[in-house]
């Protein structure tokens, strides 16, 4: 099994593998071009990201945007992300339709072993799924393995470290459901 196959399967892998390093550098170069593109040329700017990320319809993202690979990110129709979105996509990140992100949202599928010796050699990840009609407030963090259901609101500054069921308003660190929609 290659290091890339291990990564995509959520198994421990060597992030400094030659192929993975090349893929990350490609993504970083595309993000750099996007972040420096003329802000009034919206279509041209988004075209840069469409080479990297899978968009299933209309999308608008403000710069800056950062990701590790890009090819693990799937975004549904009618997506909006405010400034400074970071997606660490060592595993799949699936984002539904009609989703909005406030500024400084961080989504990370990647994590590291607790054992310090193992942490020096490997990392691993877990998929993240975000349903339809979700609003994620500014400075929220969504951690590995989390599923956020449909019709949810995640409060600003929340740290989402567990699944959030459909039709929920969830806030805090750790993020907890406070009411139903």
Automatic annotation (TrEMBL):
MF GO annotations: acyltransferase activity
Superkingdom to which the source organism belongs: Bacteria
Keywords of the record: Acyltransferase, Repeat, Transferase
This protein's record includes keyword Acyltransferase: yes
RNA-binding is among the record's keywords: no
Gene3D superfamilies, per database record: Hexapeptide repeat proteins
Segments forming domain Maltose/galactoside acetyltransferase: 4-56
EC number: 2.3.1.-
InterPro entries, A to Z: Hexapep, LacA-like, Mac_dom, Trimer_LpxA-like_sf
Root EC class: transferase
Classification via Pfam families: Hexapep (PF00132), Mac (PF12464)
UniProt family annotation: Belongs to the transferase hexapeptide repeat family.
Record protein name field: Acetyltransferase
């Amino acid at each position: 099994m290659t290091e890339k196959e291990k990564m995509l399967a959520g198994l421990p892998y060597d992030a400094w593998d030659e192929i993975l390093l090349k893929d990350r550098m490609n993504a970083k170069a595309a993000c750099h071009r996007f972040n420096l593109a003329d802000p009034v040329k919206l279509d041209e700017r988004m075209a840069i990201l469409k080479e990297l990320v899978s968009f299933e319809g209309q999308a608008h993202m403000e710069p800056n945007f950062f990701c590790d690979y890009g090819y693990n990110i799937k975004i549904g129709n009618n997506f909006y992300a405010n400034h400074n979105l970071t997606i660490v996509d060592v595993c799949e990140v699936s984002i539904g339709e009609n989703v909005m992100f406030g500024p400084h949202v961080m989504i990370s599928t990647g994590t590291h072993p607790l054992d310090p010796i193992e942490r020096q050699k490997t990392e691993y990840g877990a998929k993240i799924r975000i349903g339809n009609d979700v609003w994620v407030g500014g400075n929220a963090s969504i951690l590995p393995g989390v599923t956020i259901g449909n019709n949810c609101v995640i409060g600003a500054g929340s740290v989402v470290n567990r699944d959030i069921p459909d039709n929920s308003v969830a806030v805090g660190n750790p993020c907890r459901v406070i009411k139903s929609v």
